[in-house]
Amino acid sequence: MTHFEPSPEPTIHARTLYTGRIIRLEVHTVRLPDGRTGERELVFHPGAVAILALKDDRVLLVRQFRKALERETWEIPAGKLEPEEDPLAAAKRELLEETGYTASTWHKRGFFYTAPGFCDEGIHLYSAQGLSFLLQQPDADEFLSVHALTREEAQAAVRDGRIIDAKTLLALAWWHPETFSKLT
User: Fold this and answer.
1) Same domain for 110 and 26?
2) Residues 120, 91 share a domain
3) Per its Swiss-Prot or TrEMBL entry, what cofactor is needed (predicted)?
4) What pLDDT does 102 receive?
5) What is the 3-state secondary structure (H, E, C) of 93-159?
6) Would the pTM of this model clear 0.70, i.e. be above it?
């Protein structure tokens, strides 16, 4: 069998299947490295922010129902970027909306893609400290509760399956690498 080095896959034709409020779904016919054609199902997303909000050595998590999973999850506050929105401004907005808190100290911790095999969603991860409570202002279609967990409580939530999403697991591993890098 002949192997080819990874290389760009030029799009020959693109077809939009769906454009919604959050995502756009397209099918691209591409030229493969060996000259054949193939199809790629792609999801385009405006990007998002996620916040590791720390208060008195506790992490703030939001508990909410996720329809795609048909279950409740515990996650760090997060939300999508608006067109041309500055990621830090979006992080501040999302922290206030979802938890009711503002923060005096912000640090950019990184940027990552959620599922590069089919989606271009990238998440800007921030940490926020020096929290002050104002008023929780969730979006009209958001129903969530806020919880402040110690490291041990967060570790138990990972083990028992309450915390299952990648952005939260990554943020927890950054927060306490010696604890969360050892979880299985």
Assistant:
1) no
2) yes
3) Mg(2+)
4) 98
5) HHHHHHHCEEEEEEEEEEEEECCCCCECCEEEEEEEEEEEECCCCCCCCCCEEEEEECHHHHHHHHH
6) yes
